[in-house]
């Protein structure tokens, strides 16, 4: 196979991969990501080095080590350039957003699980549903509990809670 053909195949693969990097990102998120990218890209060369990433993170109150910064860059550096270009930055931001969503769900679970035993009992669920936010009748709480409690053990475990929150 000629080097020109290999190069053409690689470029086609790279373009397809870049299109997948933007999948699932809304227009609003894209605008926010572009603004953030330009703030991080201090020298305006179209990519973010580990040094630029470090400056940005320190300005946000973080204090990553040089190795942590290199690891962060390498984690999303698909093209092996040693820097983060815009499509790679979008991937990183999308991943961080999912991690934040996951942390919010975890924190909500802790709020429901008043005794901290790792399960939301019917009583804990009833308390939260009748005292916080909207008022639900006992019957409505029982119906929701029955729907969420997939394994039927009378309590909601973390996996069941995640399914409820993401449905």
Describe the protein's architecture and organization.
It contains eight helices and four strands. It has helices at residues 3-21, 27-40, 50-59, 66-76, 86-112, 122-131, 138-148, 158-166; strands at residues 47-48, 84-85, 120-121, 155-156. It is 66% helix and 5% strand. The radius of gyration is 23 Å and the shape is elongated. It starts with a helix and ends with a helix. The longest helix is centred in the middle third of the chain and has 27 residues, at 86-112. Helix 2 packs across helix 5, helix 3 crosses helix 4 and helix 6 packs across helix 7 (138-148). The protein folds into two domains: 24-98, Recoverin, domain 1 (Orthogonal Bundle), CATH 1.10.238.10; 113-166, Orthogonal Bundle (Recoverin, domain 1). The strands form two sheets. Strands 1-2 form a two-stranded antiparallel sheet. Residues 6-19 have low confidence and may be disordered. With 167 residues, it is mainly alpha-helical.
Q: What's the order of the H and E elements?
A: HHEHHEHEHHEH
Number of helices: 8
How far apart the termini lie comes to 49 Å
The share of residues in extended strands comes to under 5%
**What do we call the CATH homologous superfamily of the largest domain?**
EF-hand
- Helix/strand/pairing class, anyone? mainly alpha
Number of domains: 2
What is the CATH C-level name of the largest domain?
Mainly Alpha
Write out the strand line-up for the largest beta sheet, numbering strands in chain order: 1-2
Rg over CA atoms: 23 Å
CATH topology tier name of the largest domain: Recoverin, domain 1
| Low-confidence regions | 6-19
Number of strands: 4
Binned, the helix content reads: 55-70%
What is the correct CATH architecture of the largest domain?
Orthogonal Bundle
The overall pLDDT average reads 80
Largest sheet: 2 strands, antiparallel
**Per the principal axes of the C-alpha atoms, what is the gross shape?**
elongated
């Amino acid at each position: 196979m000629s080097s020109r053909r290999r190069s053409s195949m690689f470029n086609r693969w790279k373009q397809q991969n870049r299109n997948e990097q933007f999948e699932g990102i809304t227009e609003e998120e894209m605008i926010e990501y572009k603004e953030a990218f330009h703030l991080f890209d201090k020298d305006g060369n179209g990519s973010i080095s580990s040094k630029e990433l470090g400056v940005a993170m320190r300005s946000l109150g973080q204090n990553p080590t040089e190795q942590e910064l290199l690891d962060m860059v390498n984690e999303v550096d698909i093209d092996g350039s040693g820097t983060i270009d815009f499509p790679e930055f979008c991937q990183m931001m999308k991943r961080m957003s999912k991690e934040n969503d996951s942390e919010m769900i975890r924190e909500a679970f802790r709020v429901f699980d008043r005794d901290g035993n790792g399960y939301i009992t019917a009583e804990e669920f009833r308390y939260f549903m009748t005292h916080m936010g909207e008022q639900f009748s006992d019957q409505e709480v029982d119906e929701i509990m029955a729907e969420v409690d997939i394994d039927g053990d009378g309590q909601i475990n973390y996996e069941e809670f995640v399914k409820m929150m993401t449905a």
